[in-house]
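Encode chain A's predicted structure.
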Amino acid sequence: MTKPKAVVLLSGGMDSATTAAIALKRGFDVHALTFRYGQRHAAELDAARRVAERLGIRQHVTLDIDLRAFGGSALTAEMSVPKDTPMAEIGQRIPATYVPARNTIFLSFALGWAEVLGASDIFMGANAMDYSGYPDCRPEYIQAFQRMADLATRAGVEEGRKLTIHTPLIDLSKREIIERGLALGLDYSLTLTCYDPSPEGAACGRCEACLLRLKGFREGGIEDPARYQTVSGKR
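Encoded structure for chain A:
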């Protein structure tokens, strides 16, 4: 029996890698989509490639778009990445690392590819529990995009082929995400979560993404296998 096709947004981070592993476990023929969008942490592209190869994903596309033309984010402009944010404050406001409309842009490309592939499923690693407060990671946003997709595609209008956007991590803590991935045999040493890694790809251990990742491993009593720039980063 032919497996159903799915497009998976794969950034190379912990969440997207776990999501890709879940999609494969559910029996989908995964087509991974990564973006070189002008982000300062281009080392994540290498991480996405490593993850796709290890998971045996047969088609992995990296698209070039340049969001630096707009800027407006610490990831696409000359702005400082927030460091050492108290854990109680993470997620209480939208941080400087929010890239305006990024998930809408990424999902739109994924939607276009899915329609060409004849796929009715898109997976993304959005999380609204242990997260930095990005508005385009919330369940209501995902639901709104899915409704729009059904109205905006030939597949939805003429063929009656409804799109499903899967966000299997949306209600999970980082600890739960890590446990889910490990149960699927995922090697987290291949992933890069950091917003401000070294040129060699070592995580800073101090940005909000690193702090949330480290919190998840610490709560699970598991050593984070990622490379960090300093020993203190793995606190």
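The chain has one domain: 5-187.
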